[in-house]
Amino acid sequence: MINDTFGDDGMKKGKFIVFEGLDGSGKGTQTALLEKHIKQSGGKVYLTAEPTIFSTGGMIRDALGGFTDRDAYELSAMFLTDRIFHNINKKSGIRKYLDAGIDVICDRYYYSSFAYQGIDADLDWVMDMNLNCREIAKPDLCIFLDVDTELCDKRIAENRFEREIYENKDAQSRIRRRFFEVFDKLRDSENICIIDASRSVEEISDDIIKIYEKIRNTNDCVDIK
């Protein structure tokens, strides 16, 4: 797994920041606000998401939308393939930007695979194939936006014409529990910060910016709260 401080040319690498949360937790809003802060502070940043815009991501979106039937194991493998290409493609891969000293913000990453596909597939199997793949970069920070499933369901109902296969209260409750199980497993190896995302957009953003500033020029970890 890629986790070096410096790229191949000796340049200090950008920070890799991942946002996670249930559907309707506000990830899109908060990734955009952090991107804006980094740019206004004079930094360089690349905003991306999973599933990707590539052909592999398109097949995943078809499955999530219920247009193609895939089981959890198949989806896990598809996400892995999409994630590898997301990291290594030479035009817009995560590794390219990090090696150039550019921060990368990603809306969802392997933690989502663990929590979503991990509710129906073997969790250890899903985690092992991602965490032990040398082509997949390890994030410097994972920010989990924690929102009650009832509030997430309300937000989904207000903003979606159609729901994806995981966007129901029963699945979201199981997924939230799985996220916390995963975070407990990763407590000693990953830098994960849990944010109360039931507050105002401004309060959440202020906390995220403080966390980002703490890690921007250091490799210090932020303890799970």
What does this structure look like?
With 225 residues, the protein is an alpha/beta fold. The protein has one domain (16-216): P-loop containing nucleotide triphosphate hydrolases (Rossmann fold), CATH 3.40.50.300. It is 48% helix and 12% strand. It has 9 helices and 5 strands; from the N terminus they run βαβαααβααβααβα. The protein has helices spanning 27-40, 55-64, 72-88, 94-99, 110-116, 123-131, 149-159, 169-185, 201-216, and strands at residues 16-21, 45-49, 103-107, 141-146, 192-196. A 5-stranded parallel beta sheet has the order 2-3-1-4-5, with helices on both faces. Helix 2 (55-64) runs antiparallel to helix 3 (72-88), helix 5 packs antiparallel against helix 6 and helix 5 packs across helix 8. The longest helix has 17 residues, at 72-88. The protein is globular, with a radius of gyration of 17 Å. The mean pLDDT is 90.
Please summarize what this structure is.
The protein is α/β, with parallel strands linked by helices.
Per-chain topology:
Blueprint lengths: L15 E6 L5 H14 L4 E5 L5 H10 L7 H17 L5 H6 L3 E5 L2 H7 L6 H9 L9 E6 L2 H11 L9 H17 L6 E5 L4 H16 L9
Parallel strand pairs: 1-3, 1-4, 2-3, 4-5
Shape category: globular
Mean pLDDT: 90
For the termini, the CA-CA separation is 26 Å
CATH topology: Rossmann fold
Return the domain count: 1
- For the secondary structure, the number of strands is 5
Percent range for helical residues?
Answer: 40-55%
Strand arrangement in the largest pleated sheet? 2-3-1-4-5
Computed CA radius of gyration, to the nearest angstrom: 17 Å
Q: List low-pLDDT spans.
A: none
Q: In sequence order, what are the helices and strands, one letter per element?
A: EHEHHHEHHEHHEH
Q: How large is the share of residues in beta strands?
A: 5-15%
